[in-house]
Specification:
Length: 420
């Protein structure tokens, strides 16, 4: 979908036929586990911390997420476990505590403390993940609405679809950064902006920061806020990956942004969707798999919950989000006005569970060699071995035009080299 949307935008701005789109399954399979293929000077990153995973409870299972220090601290505090010492030494204590409590009690206790634990659903619900109300359908895959009126913002002819498009990237972890990494591949000037007090995992940024720059701004500081507003005034696209409402206090609610900046494309990503009792909860791919019933489907013979062979909700939603932004750019080119896009991991989970017809596997796809879809790039982090992009049409870029910079080290300005 990203490849087709990119080809269509390129054809529209150059007034030429749409180039042929050819997507290689092996390239997609490699890219969907890009974090597992990543090597930094030969070192393989750790995907999950020791306190993240499936745990037996008194009546079932829970899935925890404690990769970030603040989530680790909240998980342990909620369960009355001192957070001192190494994680490996705490594994036994956590397992013992969780085994003494019902799964739902763990879920709600940890959630109330700002941590992350989800009771593993025993089977997929007919209505989709728990984000949906009991009598409602699961979250939509992509929600799009046109907002306001403004003149079409014409993009000049260019060799790549998104050249000259300025993207403010307010996302973290995998799904959002995969989307903006894809836009960077296609020529966009992508500037990721983070709060200084919320550091990103360096290994994660080495994987998803390709093609982008990264700056730090504290939106509670008047000076930084002024800088941010300057960036915003020249942006074409804003992509956010925080819980619904989390950025509203900074004046970054979609309607507020579109009122101040007609013609802007605002793309939002969340974990659990946009309505229902779980909409405002934190979440990650692994937790949505657990809560949606995917973990139960993937369970082993002994009943232990399992996972998809890739963090497919993250990567799939990321590419869907990139495609939605590219389509919005094409629409704006034709009709003007702003666009508001919403996607969620839960929406992608619901689509996978309920809207795709199962087909039998053909051949030995699991035996393919990913080596042809990996490359090496020098970077400030060291020599990276990383996955090549799976987005392809005739004439598409084969790789990103720059390595990831170190997180938070770039100046907060637009890059004139990218077409400003």
């Amino acid at each position: 979908m990203s490849s087709l949307a990119a080809a269509e935008l390129l054809a529209l701005r150059n007034r030429v036929p749409v180039p042929a789109v050819r997507v290689n399954e092996a390239a997609v399979a490699t890219a969907f586990v890009s974090e597992r293929h990543l090597r930094i000077d030969g070192r393989a990153p750790t995907s999950f911390a020791p306190l993240s995973g499936f745990w037996r409870t008194a009546d079932g299972w829970v899935r925890t997420h404690a990769n970030y220090p603040h989530h680790r601290a909240r998980l342990l505090s909620a369960l009355g476990i001192a957070g001192t010492g190494h994680d490996q030494a705490l594994v036994g204590m956590l397992a013992k505590e969780l085994a003494s409590r019902p799964a739902r009690e763990v879920q709600e206790t940890v959630y109330a403390a700002g941590g992350l634990a989800v009771a593993v659903a025993s089977a997929p619900a007919a209505a989709g993940p728990p984000a949906a109300a009991p009598d409602a359908a699961g979250p939509a895959l992509v929600e799009t609405r046109s907002v306001g009126q403004s003149s079409p913002r014409l993009l000049a002819p260019a060799p790549v679809p998104a050249q000259g498009v300025r993207v403010l990237d307010l996302t973290r972890v995998i799904a959002g950064p995969v989307a903006t990494r894809t836009l960077a591949l296609l020529g966009a000037d992508v500037l990721r902006v983070d709060a200084p007090q919320l550091p990103e995992d360096a290994d994660a940024h080495a994987d998803t920061g390709l093609g982008k720059r990264s700056a730090l701004l504290d939106l509670t500081s008047p000076g930084d806020r002024q800088t941010f507003e300057g960036l915003l005034s020249e942006a074409d696209v804003v992509v956010t990956g925080y819980r619904p409402g989390a950025l509203d206090r900074h004046g970054l609610a979609p309607d507020a942004l579109l009122a101040r900046h007609p013609g802007l494309i605002v793309a939002q990503l969340s974990a659990w969707g946009w309505s229902g009792p779980w909409a405002e909860r934190r979440g990650f791919d692994s937790l949505v798999q657990a809560g949606s019933g995917i973990a139960a489907i993937e369970a082993t013979a002994d009943g232990r919950p399992g996972v998809l062979p890739a963090q497919a909700l993250d990567h799939g939603t990321g590419y869907l989000l990139a495609a939605a932004v590219l389509r919005a750019l094409s629409d704006r080119q034709a009709t003007g006005g702003g666009r508001h896009l919403r996607l969620s991991l839960a929406g992608t989970a619901s689509w996978l569970l309920h809207d795709i017809l199962a087909t039998s596997a053909q051949g030995e796809a699991d035996l393919y060699d990913p080596g042809s879809w990996l490359t090496e790039t020098g970077s400030p982090y060291g020599l990276l071995r990383h996955a090549l992009p799976p987005v392809h049409y005739d004439g598409a870029p084969a790789n990103w035009n720059r390595a990831p910079t170190q997180w938070g080290t770039d100046l907060p300005n637009w890059d004139c080299v990218a077409g400003c």
